[in-house]
Amino acid sequence: xxxxxxxxxxxxxxxxxxxxxxxxxxxxxxxxxxxxxxxxxxxxxxxxxxxxxxxxxxxxxxxxxxxxxxxxxxxxxxxxxxxxxxxxxxxxxxxxxxxxxxxxxxxxxxxxxxxxxxxxxxxxxxxxxxxxxxxxxxxxxxxxxxxxxxxxxxxxxxxxxxxxxxxxxxxxxxxxxxxxxxxxxxxxxxxxxxxxxxxxxxxxxxxxxxxxxxxxxxxxxxxxxxxxxxxxxxxxxxxxxxxxxxxxxxxxxxxxxxxxxxxxxxxxxxxxxxxxxxxxxxxxxxxxxxxxxxx
Length: 295
What we know:
Strand order of the largest sheet: 1-2-3
Radius of gyration: 23 Å
CATH architecture of the largest domain: Orthogonal Bundle
Helix content: 55-70%
Number of domains: 2
Number of helices: 13
Largest sheet: 3 strands, antiparallel
CATH class of the largest domain: Mainly Alpha
Structural class: mainly alpha
Strand content: under 5%
CATH topology of the largest domain: hpI Integrase, Chain A
């Protein structure tokens, strides 16, 4: 049943490998729990009370509510699939309410932090340095996700049109404009990339000519931004967050930012408006003649 579910996510829902791996791990963890706790090997026949026991166990282990909600969401999707394929009559999670989580607003990188990193990377002209500079510039100037960055192929780049094709979630394609500064870095990287001598269709490569991998992209971003930022989290996603926030701060239309990010709905994009609103409040309090800060 689980293998059929994974095939459904892969072929019909077209989820990414990372998402599918998360579903597999969540289902595997729950199945192991049921085997150890209830001597039950088939998770399609469980009752909600057993799922509640798993939740209690996870809480006891110190797992965050956010992570628990994600795991339960995986189970809920699995049981919906079993209902859809008429393998069960009732979803045991139909009345489940997600655990409460605190909304944490991530503070984006400042424009000066990003400028410092790019300036530092601009000092060297070897393959790795130029590649890393292009990684940072693309993530920040397009707002693309890490997985989207890694899936870019040479055929997706239209230098003359100053566009790049990005393949997002569920294989949804979008075209994102490239800044002149990014085009310059891209051109230089492509020149150095030829010297690597790889036949890989993917844009980003290791020094050995293999396709770049997720942890390396994370290390690149984390390493360079650790030199200029004291933020606890310095990830590729924070560059995406910075891209959206900085655009909104400069008055960009929310719908335009939504399209650039590849979001399916405005609700996903609106989470980035918080920092813009906070900046607006700060400017208002500093500039308005009746502001208490001026009295």
